[in-house]
Design brief:
The complex is a heterodimer of chains A (about 110) and B (about 110). By secondary structure, chain A is mostly beta strands. In chain A, about 0% of the residues lie in helices and about 50% in strands. In chain A, the strands form 2 sheets. In chain A, strands 2, 4, 5, 6, 9, 10 and 11 form a 7-stranded mixed β-sheet that branches. A 4-stranded antiparallel β-sheet of chain A has the order 1-3-8-7, with no helix packed on it. Chain B has no helices and 10 strands. Classes of the chains: A mainly beta (about 110), B mainly beta (about 110). The interface of A and B includes residues 37 and 105 of A.
Chain lengths: ~110, ~110
């Protein structure tokens, strides 16, 4: 069974940093793009980032470019999402997605 | 930028059939697969349709997906509505390799 599990969310002050992890199982991890999608409270889904199977290609939405960095360790079946210079508007549940399989999400709250 | 537009809300009674549209802003929506996600309050999205018209195992055949090229739209049809179908529904396609989401449709089962 394909499974994605996010972790690392929490409360952080504006300007701070946080690293999310997405641990995967049930498929050949290195063969697949992993996407990050976020959802602010009461809002719709926003596509924020992606990383190719070998980690050689990445994508960032303009809203997070130059602040967030996506990476992966295929030996650990894990994708990382390093978030820096966090703003109140980054408050959201962050999901990792493979194809049409979603993780359960992890909540990031940016507040003083 | 490629955009997907959904109605803000739809509603109908139990047992009825409802259709949610997802209209592409440019190009041909049929040139890429469309996914549909169901999201109940407080829960992660789950897939009800993938690759435009395929149902994951466990999703009842009351859910179906289609494309209407004449209107450049994808549609999610739910027949035999049940109260448990009340949720937000999002369509998703692609712009090059990036994911594109519709704004979501709130389905109310009266």
């Amino acid at each position: 069974e394909v499974q994605l599990v996010e972790s690392g969310g929490g409360l952080v002050q504006p300007g701070g940093s946080l690293r999310l992890s997405c641990s995967a199982s049930g498929f050949t991890f290195s063969n697949y793009v992993i996407h990050w999608v976020r959802q602010a409270p009461g809002k719709g889904l926003e596509y924020v980032s992606a990383i190719s199977g070998n980690g050689g290609s990445t994508y960032y939405a303009d809203s997070v470019k130059d602040r967030f960095t996506v990476s992966r360790d295929n030996s650990k079946n894990t994708v990382y999402f390093q978030m820096s210079s966090l703003r109140a508007e980054d408050t959201a549940v962050y999901y990792c997605v493979k194809g049409f399989i979603w993780g359960q999400g992890t909540l990031v709250t940016v507040s003083s | 930028n490629f955009l997907l537009t959904q109605p803000h809300s739809v509603s109908d009674s139990p047992g009825k059939t409802v259709t949610i549209s997802c209209t592409g802003s440019s190009g041909s929506i049929a040139s890429n697969y469309v996914q549909w996600y169901q999201q109940r309050p407080g829960s992660a999205p789950t897939t009800v349709i993938y690759e435009t018209n395929q149902r994951p195992s466990g999703v009842p055949d009351r859910f179906s997906g289609s494309i209407d090229s004449s209107s450049n739209s994808a549609s999610l049809t739910i027949s035999g509505l049940k109260t448990e179908d009340e949720a937000d529904y999002y369509c998703q396609s692609y712009d090059d390799t990036s994911l594109v989401f519709g704004g979501g449709t709130k389905l109310t089962v009266l």
